Protein backbone atom coordinates (compact mmCIF):
# COMPACT_ATOMS: atom_id res chain seq x y z
CA UNK A 1 0.00 0.00 0.00
CA UNK A 2 1.65 3.31 -1.05
CA UNK A 3 2.70 5.51 1.86
CA UNK A 4 2.74 2.64 4.35
CA UNK A 5 6.06 2.40 6.20
CA UNK A 6 8.01 -0.80 5.78
CA UNK A 7 8.19 -2.89 8.97
CA UNK A 8 11.40 -4.73 9.92
CA UNK A 9 11.59 -7.20 12.81
CA UNK A 10 15.14 -7.70 14.04
CA UNK A 11 15.85 -10.88 15.99
CA UNK A 12 18.79 -10.28 18.34
CA UNK A 13 19.61 -7.20 20.40
CA UNK A 14 23.41 -7.43 20.16
CA UNK A 15 25.71 -4.93 18.49
CA UNK A 16 24.60 -6.14 15.03
CA UNK A 17 20.86 -6.03 15.73
CA UNK A 18 20.87 -2.66 17.48
CA UNK A 19 23.10 -0.96 14.94
CA UNK A 20 20.86 -2.30 12.16
CA UNK A 21 17.86 -0.89 14.04
CA UNK A 22 19.51 2.55 14.06
CA UNK A 23 20.45 2.37 10.39
CA UNK A 24 17.00 1.19 9.29
CA UNK A 25 15.17 3.76 11.43
CA UNK A 26 17.36 6.53 10.00
CA UNK A 27 16.05 5.60 6.53
CA UNK A 28 12.39 5.63 7.46
CA UNK A 29 11.80 1.96 8.23
CA UNK A 30 9.76 0.92 11.28
CA UNK A 31 11.89 -1.31 13.48
CA UNK A 32 11.14 -3.74 16.28
CA UNK A 33 13.99 -5.58 18.01
CA UNK A 34 13.35 -8.93 19.71
CA UNK A 35 15.97 -10.09 22.22
CA UNK A 36 15.79 -13.38 24.09
CA UNK A 37 17.49 -12.08 27.24
CA UNK A 38 15.44 -10.41 29.95
CA UNK A 39 17.50 -7.22 29.50
CA UNK A 40 19.85 -5.89 26.87
CA UNK A 41 23.43 -6.39 27.92
CA UNK A 42 26.96 -7.21 26.92
CA UNK A 43 29.82 -8.85 28.69
CA UNK A 44 32.45 -6.88 30.59
CA UNK A 45 35.00 -6.74 27.83
CA UNK A 46 36.18 -4.43 25.10
CA UNK A 47 35.54 -4.07 21.40
CA UNK A 48 37.35 -1.99 18.81
CA UNK A 49 35.33 0.34 16.65
CA UNK A 50 37.33 1.23 13.57
CA UNK A 51 36.95 4.10 11.06
CA UNK A 52 34.91 1.98 8.62
CA UNK A 53 32.16 1.57 11.24
CA UNK A 54 32.67 4.76 13.25
CA UNK A 55 32.09 6.98 10.21
CA UNK A 56 28.69 5.28 9.73
CA UNK A 57 27.69 5.51 13.40
CA UNK A 58 28.68 9.18 13.50
CA UNK A 59 26.54 9.82 10.43
CA UNK A 60 23.59 8.27 12.25
CA UNK A 61 23.99 11.02 14.86
CA UNK A 62 25.97 9.03 17.44
CA UNK A 63 29.19 11.08 17.36
CA UNK A 64 28.81 12.73 20.78
CA UNK A 65 27.57 9.75 22.78
CA UNK A 66 30.33 7.56 21.35
CA UNK A 67 32.98 10.20 22.06
CA UNK A 68 31.72 10.36 25.66
CA UNK A 69 32.43 6.68 26.32
CA UNK A 70 35.06 5.65 23.76
CA UNK A 71 38.79 5.65 24.42
CA UNK A 72 40.96 7.11 21.68
CA UNK A 73 43.53 4.64 20.43
CA UNK A 74 46.59 6.04 18.67
CA UNK A 75 50.05 6.99 19.84
CA UNK A 76 52.28 4.11 20.92
CA UNK A 77 50.25 1.34 19.20
CA UNK A 78 52.61 -1.45 18.17
CA UNK A 79 53.00 -5.10 17.24
CA UNK A 80 55.73 -6.79 19.30
CA UNK A 81 57.28 -10.19 19.69
CA UNK A 82 56.67 -11.97 23.00
CA UNK A 83 59.81 -10.38 24.49
CA UNK A 84 58.55 -6.87 23.71
CA UNK A 85 60.80 -6.17 20.70
CA UNK A 86 58.88 -4.11 18.20
CA UNK A 87 57.86 -5.56 14.80
CA UNK A 88 55.84 -2.63 13.47
CA UNK A 89 53.37 0.13 14.16
CA UNK A 90 49.60 -0.47 14.21
CA UNK A 91 47.75 1.81 11.82
CA UNK A 92 45.32 3.98 13.79
CA UNK A 93 44.11 6.38 11.11
CA UNK A 94 42.44 6.05 7.75
CA UNK A 95 44.20 7.35 4.64
CA UNK A 96 42.93 10.88 5.26
CA UNK A 97 44.67 10.90 8.64
CA UNK A 98 41.41 10.61 10.61
CA UNK A 99 41.97 8.86 13.93
CA UNK A 100 38.44 7.41 13.92
CA UNK A 101 39.14 4.57 16.27
CA UNK A 102 37.80 3.82 19.72
CA UNK A 103 38.35 1.10 22.23
CA UNK A 104 34.93 0.64 23.79
CA UNK A 105 33.41 -1.25 26.66
CA UNK A 106 30.85 -3.48 24.96
CA UNK A 107 28.10 -2.45 27.36
CA UNK A 108 28.80 1.25 26.65
CA UNK A 109 28.48 0.68 22.91
CA UNK A 110 25.28 -1.28 23.36
CA UNK A 111 23.83 1.49 25.57
CA UNK A 112 24.62 4.16 22.96
CA UNK A 113 22.92 2.08 20.25
CA UNK A 114 19.89 1.27 22.43
CA UNK A 115 19.44 4.85 23.66
CA UNK A 116 19.15 6.10 20.09
CA UNK A 117 16.01 4.09 19.30
CA UNK A 118 12.67 4.34 21.13
CA UNK A 119 12.57 1.94 24.09
CA UNK A 120 9.13 0.82 22.84
CA UNK A 121 10.91 -0.68 19.80
CA UNK A 122 12.92 -3.10 21.94
CA UNK A 123 11.21 -6.26 23.18
CA UNK A 124 13.33 -8.19 25.65
CA UNK A 125 12.31 -11.62 26.93
CA UNK A 126 11.40 -12.63 23.36
CA UNK A 127 13.17 -15.78 22.22
CA UNK A 128 12.30 -16.40 18.62
CA UNK A 129 11.38 -20.04 18.00
CA UNK A 130 9.69 -19.98 14.62
CA UNK A 131 9.59 -18.21 11.27
CA UNK A 132 7.18 -18.43 8.37
CA UNK A 133 6.51 -16.32 5.33
CA UNK A 134 4.14 -15.93 2.40
CA UNK A 135 3.64 -13.50 -0.48
CA UNK A 136 2.17 -10.89 1.82
CA UNK A 137 4.20 -10.96 5.06
CA UNK A 138 6.52 -12.81 7.44
CA UNK A 139 5.58 -14.20 10.85
CA UNK A 140 7.72 -14.78 13.92
CA UNK A 141 6.82 -16.95 16.89
CA UNK A 142 8.34 -16.53 20.35
CA UNK A 143 8.77 -18.94 23.22
CA UNK A 144 6.48 -16.76 25.35
CA UNK A 145 3.62 -17.65 23.00
CA UNK A 146 3.51 -14.33 21.14
CA UNK A 147 3.45 -14.11 17.38
CA UNK A 148 4.01 -11.06 15.20
CA UNK A 149 3.61 -10.19 11.54
CA UNK A 150 6.11 -8.03 9.70
CA UNK A 151 7.32 -7.17 6.18
CA UNK A 152 10.82 -8.54 6.71
CA UNK A 153 12.98 -10.26 9.29
CA UNK A 154 16.62 -9.48 10.03
CA UNK A 155 18.25 -12.46 11.73
CA UNK A 156 20.93 -10.85 13.92
CA UNK A 157 20.93 -13.73 16.37
CA UNK A 158 24.65 -14.40 16.50
CA UNK A 159 26.96 -17.25 15.62
CA UNK A 160 24.52 -19.86 16.98
CA UNK A 161 21.70 -18.35 14.90
CA UNK A 162 18.53 -20.38 15.15
CA UNK A 163 17.02 -18.50 12.19
CA UNK A 164 19.86 -19.39 9.83
CA UNK A 165 18.12 -22.67 8.95
CA UNK A 166 15.26 -20.74 7.31
CA UNK A 167 17.76 -19.25 4.85
CA UNK A 168 20.41 -21.85 4.15
CA UNK A 169 21.26 -25.44 5.12
CA UNK A 170 22.70 -25.05 8.65
CA UNK A 171 26.47 -25.39 9.00
CA UNK A 172 28.32 -25.87 12.25
CA UNK A 173 30.72 -23.16 13.42
CA UNK A 174 34.34 -24.33 13.03
CA UNK A 175 36.58 -24.42 16.11
CA UNK A 176 39.89 -22.60 15.71
CA UNK A 177 41.75 -24.55 18.40
CA UNK A 178 42.17 -21.38 20.43
CA UNK A 179 40.58 -19.90 23.50
CA UNK A 180 40.41 -16.18 24.37
CA UNK A 181 40.73 -15.10 28.01
CA UNK A 182 39.56 -11.55 28.43
CA UNK A 183 38.62 -8.98 30.96
CA UNK A 184 39.11 -5.44 32.22
CA UNK A 185 41.57 -3.83 34.61
CA UNK A 186 41.26 -0.36 36.16
CA UNK A 187 43.83 1.83 34.38
CA UNK A 188 44.98 3.26 37.70
CA UNK A 189 46.37 -0.18 38.54
CA UNK A 190 48.62 0.02 35.50
CA UNK A 191 49.89 3.61 35.68
CA UNK A 192 52.76 2.93 33.28
CA UNK A 193 50.41 2.10 30.40
CA UNK A 194 50.72 4.60 27.53
CA UNK A 195 47.26 6.16 27.47
CA UNK A 196 46.30 5.62 23.82
CA UNK A 197 48.30 2.49 23.12
CA UNK A 198 46.98 -0.69 21.54
CA UNK A 199 49.66 -3.32 21.96
CA UNK A 200 49.82 -6.81 20.44
CA UNK A 201 52.44 -9.36 21.57
CA UNK A 202 52.99 -12.37 19.31
CA UNK A 203 54.42 -15.60 20.70
CA UNK A 204 54.60 -19.27 19.96
CA UNK A 205 51.01 -20.45 19.38
CA UNK A 206 49.69 -17.60 21.55
CA UNK A 207 49.19 -13.88 21.49
CA UNK A 208 48.18 -11.17 23.90
CA UNK A 209 46.71 -7.72 23.40
CA UNK A 210 45.72 -4.68 25.40
CA UNK A 211 43.83 -1.50 24.58
CA UNK A 212 42.01 1.19 26.58
CA UNK A 213 38.20 1.46 26.85
CA UNK A 214 35.66 3.67 28.68
CA UNK A 215 37.43 7.01 28.14
CA UNK A 216 40.68 5.38 29.24
CA UNK A 217 39.42 4.43 32.71
CA UNK A 218 39.79 0.73 31.95
CA UNK A 219 42.21 -1.44 30.03
CA UNK A 220 40.87 -4.36 28.04
CA UNK A 221 43.16 -7.38 27.73
CA UNK A 222 42.77 -10.54 25.69
CA UNK A 223 45.06 -13.56 25.89
CA UNK A 224 44.72 -16.12 23.09
CA UNK A 225 45.94 -19.61 23.98
CA UNK A 226 45.70 -22.98 22.22
CA UNK A 227 43.42 -25.65 23.69
CA UNK A 228 42.71 -29.29 22.98
CA UNK A 229 39.11 -29.14 24.13
CA UNK A 230 36.44 -27.04 22.45
CA UNK A 231 35.87 -24.30 25.02
CA UNK A 232 32.22 -23.52 25.38
CA UNK A 233 30.97 -20.46 23.63
CA UNK A 234 29.72 -18.40 26.51
CA UNK A 235 30.60 -15.03 27.84
CA UNK A 236 29.64 -16.08 31.32
CA UNK A 237 32.30 -18.82 31.54
CA UNK A 238 34.71 -17.67 34.22
CA UNK A 239 38.32 -18.23 33.26
CA UNK A 240 41.10 -19.29 35.56
CA UNK A 241 43.31 -16.25 36.17
CA UNK A 242 46.25 -18.36 37.33
CA UNK A 243 46.07 -20.50 34.22
CA UNK A 244 46.00 -17.31 32.16
CA UNK A 245 49.02 -15.85 33.95
CA UNK A 246 50.90 -19.17 33.60
CA UNK A 247 50.24 -19.18 29.84
CA UNK A 248 52.21 -15.95 29.48
CA UNK A 249 54.94 -16.53 32.07
CA UNK A 250 58.33 -15.30 30.83
CA UNK A 251 56.82 -12.87 28.30
CA UNK A 252 57.58 -9.14 28.15
CA UNK A 253 57.49 -7.82 31.76
CA UNK A 254 54.64 -5.52 30.71
CA UNK A 255 52.44 -8.56 29.96
CA UNK A 256 53.44 -10.31 33.18
CA UNK A 257 52.94 -7.11 35.22
CA UNK A 258 49.53 -6.52 33.72
CA UNK A 259 48.39 -10.09 34.37
CA UNK A 260 49.37 -9.73 38.02
CA UNK A 261 46.54 -7.21 38.28
CA UNK A 262 43.85 -9.55 36.91
CA UNK A 263 41.24 -10.61 39.43
CA UNK A 264 38.66 -12.30 37.23
CA UNK A 265 38.43 -13.09 33.57
CA UNK A 266 36.07 -14.67 31.07
CA UNK A 267 36.96 -17.20 28.46
CA UNK A 268 35.56 -17.75 25.06
CA UNK A 269 36.19 -20.51 22.50
CA UNK A 270 36.98 -19.06 19.10
CA UNK A 271 34.83 -20.22 16.22
CA UNK A 272 34.10 -18.99 12.73
CA UNK A 273 32.42 -20.31 9.61
CA UNK A 274 33.41 -20.63 6.01
CA UNK A 275 31.22 -18.23 4.00
CA UNK A 276 27.59 -19.37 3.73
CA UNK A 277 26.04 -20.18 0.35
CA UNK A 278 23.37 -17.51 0.85
CA UNK A 279 22.19 -14.93 3.34
CA UNK A 280 18.62 -14.29 2.34
CA UNK A 281 15.46 -16.11 1.35
CA UNK A 282 12.34 -14.16 0.53
CA UNK A 283 11.57 -11.89 3.48
CA UNK A 284 14.40 -12.96 5.78
CA UNK A 285 18.09 -11.97 5.74
CA UNK A 286 21.03 -12.81 7.98
CA UNK A 287 23.23 -10.08 9.49
CA UNK A 288 26.37 -9.93 11.64
CA UNK A 289 27.73 -13.15 13.12
CA UNK A 290 24.63 -15.03 11.94
CA UNK A 291 25.75 -14.27 8.37
CA UNK A 292 29.55 -14.23 8.56
CA UNK A 293 30.97 -15.37 11.89
CA UNK A 294 34.68 -14.59 11.83
CA UNK A 295 37.68 -14.95 14.12
CA UNK A 296 38.52 -11.79 16.08
CA UNK A 297 42.04 -11.42 14.68
CA UNK A 298 41.34 -8.29 12.66
CA UNK A 299 38.80 -6.97 15.20
CA UNK A 300 36.05 -6.67 12.61
CA UNK A 301 33.09 -8.90 13.56
CA UNK A 302 31.08 -6.07 15.09
CA UNK A 303 32.40 -3.52 12.58
CA UNK A 304 31.24 -5.67 9.67
CA UNK A 305 27.86 -6.14 11.36
CA UNK A 306 27.55 -2.34 11.55
CA UNK A 307 28.40 -2.09 7.85
CA UNK A 308 25.74 -4.77 7.11
CA UNK A 309 23.04 -2.70 8.79
CA UNK A 310 23.91 0.42 6.81
CA UNK A 311 23.88 -1.47 3.49
CA UNK A 312 20.60 -3.15 4.36
CA UNK A 313 19.02 0.23 5.10
CA UNK A 314 20.20 1.69 1.78
CA UNK A 315 18.69 -1.21 -0.18
CA UNK A 316 15.40 -1.17 1.75
CA UNK A 317 14.79 2.57 1.75
CA UNK A 318 11.72 3.47 -0.27
CA UNK A 319 10.76 -0.18 -0.87
CA UNK A 320 7.33 -1.56 -0.15
CA UNK A 321 6.40 -4.95 1.19
CA UNK A 322 6.02 -6.47 -2.29
CA UNK A 323 9.65 -5.95 -3.29
CA UNK A 324 11.47 -6.71 -0.06
CA UNK A 325 12.92 -10.00 -1.34
CA UNK A 326 14.71 -8.28 -4.19
CA UNK A 327 16.20 -5.67 -1.82
CA UNK A 328 17.45 -8.41 0.51
CA UNK A 329 19.05 -10.23 -2.41
CA UNK A 330 20.84 -7.04 -3.39
CA UNK A 331 22.05 -6.60 0.18
CA UNK A 332 23.44 -10.11 0.16
CA UNK A 333 25.07 -9.81 -3.27
CA UNK A 334 26.64 -6.55 -2.26
CA UNK A 335 27.99 -7.58 1.14
CA UNK A 336 29.27 -11.11 0.63
CA UNK A 337 32.51 -10.31 -1.17
CA UNK A 338 33.82 -7.89 1.46
CA UNK A 339 32.88 -9.99 4.47
CA UNK A 340 34.37 -13.10 2.80
CA UNK A 341 37.69 -11.29 2.41
CA UNK A 342 37.63 -10.16 6.05
CA UNK A 343 36.75 -13.67 7.29
CA UNK A 344 39.72 -15.14 5.37
CA UNK A 345 42.12 -12.42 6.53
CA UNK A 346 41.03 -12.91 10.15
CA UNK A 347 42.10 -16.57 9.89
CA UNK A 348 45.41 -15.60 8.26
CA UNK A 349 46.13 -12.93 10.83
CA UNK A 350 45.55 -15.43 13.63
CA UNK A 351 48.36 -17.54 12.15
CA UNK A 352 50.62 -14.49 12.06
CA UNK A 353 49.81 -13.46 15.63
CA UNK A 354 50.36 -17.03 16.86
CA UNK A 355 53.65 -17.28 14.95
CA UNK A 356 52.35 -20.29 13.01
CA UNK A 357 54.57 -19.43 10.08
CA UNK A 358 57.43 -21.45 8.58
CA UNK A 359 59.48 -18.26 8.51
CA UNK A 360 59.15 -15.65 11.24
CA UNK A 361 60.99 -13.15 9.04
CA UNK A 362 58.17 -13.56 6.51
CA UNK A 363 55.60 -13.15 9.31
CA UNK A 364 57.34 -10.00 10.55
CA UNK A 365 57.41 -8.56 7.02
CA UNK A 366 53.68 -9.18 6.63
CA UNK A 367 52.92 -7.67 10.04
CA UNK A 368 55.04 -4.61 9.24
CA UNK A 369 52.93 -4.32 6.04
CA UNK A 370 49.58 -4.75 7.79
CA UNK A 371 48.74 -1.11 7.04
CA UNK A 372 47.88 -2.03 3.44
CA UNK A 373 44.98 -4.25 4.51
CA UNK A 374 44.04 -1.89 7.34
CA UNK A 375 43.72 0.99 4.87
CA UNK A 376 41.44 -1.14 2.69
CA UNK A 377 39.33 -1.82 5.79
CA UNK A 378 39.30 1.68 7.24
CA UNK A 379 38.84 3.75 4.09
CA UNK A 380 35.68 1.94 3.00
CA UNK A 381 32.45 3.89 3.12
CA UNK A 382 29.70 1.29 3.01
CA UNK A 383 26.89 3.80 2.62
CA UNK A 384 28.51 5.42 -0.38
CA UNK A 385 29.42 2.06 -1.88
CA UNK A 386 25.89 0.71 -1.44
CA UNK A 387 24.36 3.76 -3.10
CA UNK A 388 26.80 3.42 -6.01
CA UNK A 389 25.98 -0.31 -6.29
CA UNK A 390 22.29 0.50 -6.32
CA UNK A 391 22.77 3.07 -9.09
CA UNK A 392 24.84 0.65 -11.17
CA UNK A 393 22.37 -2.21 -10.76
CA UNK A 394 19.12 -0.29 -10.90
CA UNK A 395 18.58 -1.22 -14.54
CA UNK A 396 20.34 -4.59 -14.64
CA UNK A 397 18.32 -6.24 -11.82
CA UNK A 398 14.54 -6.29 -11.76
CA UNK A 399 13.24 -4.09 -8.94
C1 LIG B 1 37.60 -12.41 21.83
C2 LIG B 1 36.81 -11.61 20.85
C3 LIG B 1 37.17 -10.31 20.56
C4 LIG B 1 36.46 -9.55 19.62
N1 LIG B 1 36.85 -8.28 19.34
C5 LIG B 1 36.20 -7.58 18.38
C6 LIG B 1 36.60 -6.23 18.05
O1 LIG B 1 37.54 -5.67 18.64
N2 LIG B 1 35.92 -5.58 17.07
C7 LIG B 1 34.90 -6.18 16.38
O2 LIG B 1 34.34 -5.55 15.47
N3 LIG B 1 34.47 -7.43 16.70
C8 LIG B 1 35.10 -8.13 17.67
N4 LIG B 1 34.68 -9.38 18.01
C9 LIG B 1 33.51 -9.95 17.29
C10 LIG B 1 32.21 -9.36 17.79
O3 LIG B 1 32.13 -9.53 19.18
C11 LIG B 1 31.02 -10.05 17.13
O4 LIG B 1 31.24 -10.16 15.75
C12 LIG B 1 29.74 -9.24 17.36
O5 LIG B 1 29.51 -9.06 18.72
C13 LIG B 1 28.57 -9.96 16.71
O6 LIG B 1 27.41 -9.23 16.95
P1 LIG B 1 26.00 -9.85 16.57
O7 LIG B 1 25.00 -8.81 17.00
O8 LIG B 1 25.99 -10.32 15.17
O9 LIG B 1 25.86 -11.15 17.47
P2 LIG B 1 25.78 -11.27 19.06
O10 LIG B 1 26.57 -10.25 19.73
O11 LIG B 1 26.06 -12.71 19.35
O12 LIG B 1 24.26 -10.96 19.39
C14 LIG B 1 23.23 -11.87 19.10
C15 LIG B 1 22.05 -11.53 20.00
O13 LIG B 1 20.94 -12.32 19.59
C16 LIG B 1 20.30 -12.84 20.75
N5 LIG B 1 19.61 -14.05 20.32
C17 LIG B 1 20.17 -15.23 19.93
N6 LIG B 1 19.20 -16.11 19.58
C18 LIG B 1 18.01 -15.46 19.74
C19 LIG B 1 16.66 -15.85 19.55
N7 LIG B 1 16.31 -17.09 19.11
N8 LIG B 1 15.67 -14.95 19.80
C20 LIG B 1 16.00 -13.69 20.24
N9 LIG B 1 17.28 -13.28 20.47
C21 LIG B 1 18.26 -14.15 20.21
C22 LIG B 1 21.43 -13.07 21.72
O14 LIG B 1 20.96 -13.13 23.05
C23 LIG B 1 22.32 -11.85 21.47
O15 LIG B 1 21.92 -10.75 22.25
C24 LIG B 1 35.35 -10.14 18.96
C25 LIG B 1 34.95 -11.44 19.29
C26 LIG B 1 35.67 -12.18 20.23
C27 LIG B 1 35.24 -13.56 20.54
Annotation keywords:
binds flavin-adenine dinucleotide, 399 residues, alpha+beta
Q: How would you describe what is shown here?
A:
This protein is of the alpha+beta class. It is 34% helix and 24% strand. It has eleven helices and 20 strands. An eight-stranded mixed sheet has the order 6-5-14-15-16-13-18-17. Strands 8-2-1-12-20-19 form a six-stranded mixed sheet. A three-stranded antiparallel sheet has the order 3-7-4. A hairpin with a 4-residue loop joins strand 9 and strand 10. Helix 1 packs parallel to helix 7. The longest helix has 30 residues. The chain is globular, with a radius of gyration of 21 Å. The mean pLDDT is 94. The protein binds flavin-adenine dinucleotide.
Structure at a glance:
The protein is an alpha+beta fold.
Anisotropy-based shape: globular
The averaged pLDDT comes out at 94
The largest pleated sheet is described as: 8 strands, mixed
| Spatial gap, N to C terminus | 16 Å
Topology:
Elements: E1 7-11, H1 15-26, E2 30-34, E3 46-49, H2 51-69, E4 71-72, E5 78-81, E6 86-89, E7 102-105, H3 106-115, E8 122-123, E9 128-133, E10 138-142, E11 147-150, E12 152-155, E13 174-186, E14 199-202, E15 207-213, E16 218-226, E17 238-239, H4 241-247, H5 253-259, E18 265-272, E19 280-281, E20 284-286, H6 289-292, H7 301-316, H8 324-353, H9 360-368, H10 371-379, H11 382-393
Parallel strand pairs: 1-2, 1-12, 2-8, 5-14, 12-20
Antiparallel strand pairs: 3-7, 4-7, 5-6, 9-10, 10-11, 13-16, 13-18, 14-15, 15-16, 17-18, 19-20
Helix pairs in contact: 1-3, 1-7, 2-3, 2-7, 7-8, 7-11
Bound molecules: flavin-adenine dinucleotide (FAD).
Flavin-adenine dinucleotide binds at residues 11-17, 34-37, 47-48, 126-128, 156-158, 162, 180, 182, 222, 268, 288-290, 296, 299-303, 305.
